[in-house]
Design a protein that fits this description.
globular, mainly alpha
């Protein structure tokens, strides 16, 4: 969270100084030239494609644990649904995204509330550090960094945000801080159960 917050602060500074659509592509092409901007643009495109595939396979794994169909069926199905939704327009996609985020935050808050109600603090002190080894810590850290990657896309929409000098830093920093607080609360609940 601290590393992502430092990155968000830098992105907020650059994006408020150059409130144009395009995010990293625009910033790098202005600073280093169009070749470097194009390289970053293509890199971002491929990064988003691979991240989307990562998210879809993760979604498929979760649903597979409830209804045992092949993971690829869920991943491809959700990709088709989301692509269709985006083709319907940004307003419909934005409304669905707000609904999904709201439901997910509600589920996480219910998890945290139930965990706090059944917490057993002494369990924290009975466990050993890294019972599954350093590899598990590194794998968890890598997964956690991927989950923070989305906040940078806020800067890509700087030109479309009303009063970007004020609202862009709030959006960037607020998204990172709120996710970090949720992660910390979930971690505490998991440690005490």
């Amino acid at each position: 969270g601290v590393i992502a917050l430092l990155n968000a602060m830098a992105a907020a500074e650059v994006a408020t100084g150059m409130p144009k659509s395009g995010g990293g592509y625009y910033f790098i092409s202005r600073a280093l030239g169009p070749l470097w901007g194009a390289m970053l643009g293509w890199g971002s495109l491929f990064g988003l494609v691979f991240a989307s595939a990562f998210y879809m396979v993760g979604f498929g794994e979760y649903v597979h644990s409830v209804v045992p169909l092949p993971v690829v069926v869920y991943a491809v199905g959700m990709t088709v649904i989301l692509t269709g939704l985006n083709l319907m327009g940004s307003k419909a996609a934005g409304q669905l995204q707000n609904l999904i985020v709201g439901v997910l935050v509600l589920v996480l808050l219910l998890f945290i509330g139930r965990g706090v109600a059944g917490a057993e603090p002494p369990l924290l002190f009975r466990s050993t550090f890294a019972p599954f080894g350093l590899g598990a810590i590194l794998a968890g850290t890598a997964t956690l960094f991927v989950t923070y990657a989305g906040f940078g896309e806020i800067a890509s929409m700087a030109e479309e945000i009303r009063n970007p000098g004020k609202n862009l830093p709030r959006a960037l920093l607020g998204s990172v801080i709120s996710v970090t607080v949720l992660y910390c609360l979930i971690l505490l609940v998991c440690l005490f159960l």
